[in-house]
Structure formats: structure tokens, C-alpha cells
Design brief:
Shape: elongated
Strand content: under 5%
Number of helices: 4
Structural class: mainly alpha
Order of helices and strands: HHHH
Largest sheet: none
Number of strands: 0
Length: 77
């Protein structure tokens, strides 16, 4: 447990930096105007992810889940 409590903060920092980078790499296509109600809301929000975009999306979910598990472990330890 002592080793885990020593490594866990650094793992959380690394996972959080990776999660931020993965989220920023995702392209929404709507831009800032779409956030405030502008733009074409029918076609910009609903599209099928393909190729690298799908891989990036799934990797973001996995890293987010790992971060949540590490936060839960930090709460227990």
C-alpha cells in the first residue's frame, strides 16, 4: 500500500494531462458559434465517427475511466 500511495499522485497527474490533451485534440466541427445556438444544429452534432476520430474517442473514454479508477483508489488509500 505504501508503494501505491507513493506512485498514485504521479499517475493521476500523468493521466489528467493525457486526458486534457485527448479532449483538446477532438474536433467538434461546430466551432464557438455552435455553442451559443448558431450554426446548423442538425448536421454538425450528429455524425458517425470513423478512422482516427473513432480511435481517439475510444482512447479518451479509456483514459477517463482509468483516471476515475485512480481517483477512487486514492480515496480508498
Amino acid at each position: 500500500m505504501k508503494i501505491l500511495s507513493g506512485i498514485l499522485p504521479y499517475a493521476q497527474i500523468g493521466l489528467s494531462a493525457l486526458l486534457i490533451a485527448l479532449i483538446l485534440l477532438q474536433k467538434t466541427g461546430a466551432g464557438v458559434g455552435g455553442a451559443f445556438g448558431g450554426g446548423d444544429s442538425f448536421s454538425s452534432g450528429f455524425h458517425t465517427r470513423r478512422g482516427f476520430e473513432k480511435t481517439l474517442f475510444r482512447l479518451t473514454i479509456a483514459v477517463g475511466a482509468l483516471f476515475a479508477v485512480s481517483a477512487f483508489l486514492a480515496f480508498i488509500v
